[in-house]
Model the fold of this input.
Amino acid sequence: MFPTGKQAGAGPIGQALLQRIAVREKARVQAHFLARLYAHLDAQNIVLCGSAALHGVYLHRRWAKDLDFVALPGVAARFTDIARECGLMLAAKDEDSAPRLDRTGWMFGLTRTGFPEARIAVEVFTCDTFRVVPERGTWMADSGETVAVWAKPLPEIIGIKLGNVFRRAKAADYVDLWLGLQSDPALRYPVREMLGRGLCFAGDFTPPAALDMALALSQLDTLRETWREKLSPYMKHVPPFDEVRAELAHSLPFFTSNAK
Done:
């Protein structure tokens, strides 16, 4: 595996440089895999989602380490074959897990051997139909490559990010939600509509009016000390914690007031 800055014994500047090199190599592997995947005849049934769609297709503000997809079952079963065509080896998604391949969701890693070695993480969730019509878009890698893809619409991705901040305390979810709402203030209206219709949640859907905004902010506060450390490998410019918190404290109540 490509060494991290700490593994290579580098100082802070060297660590940052090695992280950027590692990210760029992984972005190239992502681009190669996506290009082969979307050259598939059933490409319209493979939908890019999560942070990979948010930043690769819409915002371009940070690198997303995972490629997340929603796909119809028959198409999802071919992911590993396409990976092998790309010369990628199936591996665990991370060091603490094993590849998981079942009918509801797949989680695995794809490794490019050679130097520098690069590993990317992939998650595939299967569904019988798409609740929201996917959009055609262009994914752009941190390394500059572009691939034509199908992606979840931006309001749906933002709505899912909003749901995520109640499920887990991850800096990436909070900064993505903040960046999404900043990109276009008018987005909050279709996001709230989708939330009200249950289109941004899975089986554990909670009506927007019942979302606990105080809980979301208290979970965010636990990330203050590690904010920059968590985000700097994926962002060239990490926004100040207090700026993000202040804006979310102002914006989040909109999604519970007058929710339909």
The first helix runs from residue 12 to 37. The longest strand covers residues 118-126.
